[in-house]
Amino acid sequence: MKLFTRYSRINFAATTAVLVAGSIIFYFIIHYVLIRQLDETLKVEEAEILDFVSKRDSLPPPANYKDQHVRFYASDKPVKRGFFSSIMYDTVENEKQIFRVLRFPINADHKTYIATVSKSQVETEDLLFLMVLITIGIIVLLLFFQFIINRLLVKKMWRPFHHTLQTIKQFTVTNQEEVVLPATNIDEFTQLNNALNLMTEKMRNDYVSLKSFADTASHEMQTPLAVINSKLDLLIQDQSLDEKQTKQLAAMYDAVGRLRKLNQSLLLITKIENQQFLQTSRVNLRKLIENKLIQLEELIVARHLNISTDLADVSISINPYLADILLNNLLTNAIRHNTDNGTIIILLQQQSLSVRNTGHPLGFDASRLFDRFRKDNASEGVGLGLAIVKQICDSSGFTIQYRYDNGQHIFTIDW
Question: Which residue from 13, 37, 140, 306 could staple onto 343, CB 3.0 to 4.6 Å apart?
Fold first, then answer.
């Protein structure tokens, strides 16, 4: 959910709750005030009746007006003075209406009476109803204008942020052009832009330093490894060495070879991560797979493997060098982790490539298959082949999935 949407919903809900609660409180306050006003009017009538009785020692005549009634009832028991509301039949309007009533005791002509003065509450209720309608209308208008203000004003305020976000999405460390972020008079956005400018500049500097290190390391490490490898070649060919020394030199030779492969693989991963293979072209995967199978034919024959292919004529946009490494690592993995007399099935379709090979189940969690240096104990590789495959897929916008089904390791790449 977007921040603006979440803010609008919370703001709308809070405003509605406050307005509704305030309206309810306002309603009861106005209702209380109007009822008290009616009560004051009834008190005036009470005072006039008491004044009439005190002067004449007799009851005034009952009154029955349109919105006010005065009645007297003889009573043997004293009654408590008080106000209350009651629904009564109005003989003038010929209908039931709600009245505000004041009941109080009165003594006249040595007798006790109950006097009731009632006044219609219809006008009061109508006034309250009108005020409720006005309040509801005000709430609706406030919420409407608040919605419009949020949509226009707040959206305008967030425009520099969205511009900054779009600029950062398009940022790449390989692009040496300066990142231009929009100027804004909002302090928080200004601080964000300053922090992003510092971060992108540092990323560029780190990228240049790392790229320089990778290039230098690739050159400097290969030279001594090549020297060691050539010296070991000369020593192995020395006829004066006994069998034990020859085996030790062979082990050293193999170790140097593995070290060279490890160095090349790590440098390749670093270059891929640093996006040094951005140049892409249309690569015909069918031809590339067929050429790879020819190159690996010696290994396939040595393991007595059965190769089955179903290759569509598919071309994808990818760096040619990375495409070659991707297929080489996938097919080499299928050969190396196969069983003697096993099978390899290669299925190339318009949107995917699937490589299947027979083999034993993994000895570890399949979710860690693409981790660096993750390999079986019996494997002769350096444990970076599938990590490189995953890195190439990620940098090229592909997805790779693995599963083990019916005695087969299945790798599927979708693009």
Answer: 306
